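Readers of this paper often ask what the protein records in our data store actually look like. Such a record has a labelled line for the sequence and another for the backbone structure tokens. Nothing more is needed to write down the fold, since each code stands for a local backbone conformation. The remainder of this section carries one protein's record, kept here as part of the documentation.
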Amino acid sequence: MVFDFLDYRAYLEEKLGKKGTRSGARKRLAEYMGVHTTFISQVLNGQSELSLEQAEVANEFLEHSFDEGEFFIYLVMIARAGTPVLKNRFVEKVRLLKEKRLKIKDRLKAEGSINKEDQQKFYSSYHYGAVHVLASIPGQNTIEAISLALKLPRSKVVELVEFLVKLGVLVRSDSKVEPGKNHIHLSNENELVLSHHRNWRQHTISRLQFLNKEDVHYSACVSLSHKDAFQVKESLLGNLEKNVQVISKSAEEVAYVYSLDFYKLSDD
């Protein structure tokens, strides 16, 4: 992450690759900025500096979050500063930004202290739950991998992850994200249950258009006796309990969506 660097050139080399490697990334950045590839090489070699406007374009290209973008621009300002006094001012700002991110009390909330407002945000979209699950899977628990899996811009995934880290639901470990100590669980009486079910049903509907033969979907409206309806319900709940036990002991290798509905068509 950009927060691990104090030199924007070193960060860009990490993202774009050193000379002779991954040159395609340098070319794409140059095209995105509207400059020649030579200029990017000169910047990385210390012969030229990015302007603040070019730094902002680089933010867009690298899909930085707001905080990442602010930090990157301050790194550019440090490099561009014309006097020691001005440079020290920007260095101090960078130090404060890093300090703010490192303070546990600002980054994590006490276990069990997730407030109603944060719960509402968590259940406003299936994205938060999906990121949480993907973070538990080795090989899927990086910003880039999650971005690819959910088909979301990197900047959006960074925003989702930062919120979950704030809640203590996730923790950052180098370039990876992992499940934290906090958990969000809704009882059937919680008003947010409706949002939770709606989000995943809508996701299911969006997936139906792809008709993946490995997926399982079944919908039907049936008529049956009261006795058999009870038996079907008991069977579904029994299998659900068994499946949850299997899932809880299973190694994290792939993410699946599990939805189950069985209800009376009419309340009469």
Remarks:
- Confidence is low (pLDDT under 50) at residues 104-112.
- The chain has 13 helices and two strands.
- Strands lie at 170-173, 176-179.
